[in-house]
Amino acid sequence: MEKTRQKQAIRTKKRAIVTDPARTIEYFGVVNYATNERVIEEMRELVIAAPETPITLQVTSAGGPTGTAMSFYDTMRYILKPRLTTIGSGDVDSSGIIIFLAGDTRYVTPHTTLLLHVAGRHFSEGKRYTADEMDAMLREDRLKDFQYASILAERSAGRLDTDQVLRMMEKNTILTPLELVAYGLADRVLE
User: Fold this and answer.
1) Quick one: which H or E segment has residue 189?
2) Which among 9, 37, 57, 109 could disulfide-bond with 89, CB atoms 3.0 to 4.6 Å apart, if both were Cys?
3) At what angle are helices 66-74 and 131-155 packed, to 10 degrees?
4) What are the distances in angstroms from CA 51 to CA 76, 78, 190?
5) Alpha carbon 63 to chain centroid, angstroms
6) What residue spans define the domains of the chain?
7) Is the entire prediction scored with pTM above 0.85?
């Protein structure tokens, strides 16, 4: 009986995620410059205070501009370089996925979903665009799609390539927690 309890305790410890509330930051809501600025400033302060101590970022986001998410991703991966664990919870869609993928270690809750789709734009009513302007927007959107797909492929530990991700985006693919683990985009589902 005692050995069974010890084994259960060991299994529980292996599955438990220990986070320090003082070193946990929330990225909730739309991806935008204001949220990026707030989260990056909090992250910078924690990195300066204790560069080797892990930081946890909880992500719930319906997305936003892809370039804004990539700015956050690049700041985490190439500039600040914190020991970052991300936890995806609920909707982690569109460019919110890029925020989530900034983590060295990535977990998702059992009710997390990720929506992959190609870039789109909102146009102001009554705004007129020339053919050249629309062509430039289309080229930029295709470049952002490729960059987005490249990040997902890179972070999948070789389980996906850029073309596979682009096809998934074209189909407006929704991924479940178990699919995220299978594709290498998450390390495991929290229990």
Assistant:
1) strand 188-189
2) 109
3) 40
4) 13, 14, 26
5) 10
6) 22-121+129-189
7) yes
**Which amino acid, one-letter code, is at 101?**
L
Report residue 41 as tokens: 């400033």
d(CA 90, CA 58): 10
Q: What string of pLDDT tens digits covers the 191 residues of the chain?
A: 444 443 343 344 455 666 889 999 999 999 999 999 999 999 999 999 999 999 999 999 999 999 999 999 999 999 999 999 999 999 999 999 999 999 999 999 999 999 999 988 878 888 899 999 999 999 999 999 999 999 999 999 999 999 999 999 999 999 999 999 999 999 999 98
* Alpha-carbon separation of residue 4 from 1, 7, 15, 145 (angstroms): 5, 5, 17, 50
Taking the C-alpha atoms of residue 2 and residue 36, their distance in angstroms, rounded to an integer, is 49
Question: Tokens representing 125?
Answer: 């009513």
Assigned token pair, 34: 């204001």
Residue 64 has phi, psi (to 5 degrees) of 165, -160
> Whole-angstrom Cα distance, residue 150 to residue 156?
10
The CATH code of the domain at 22-121+129-189 is 3.90.226.10
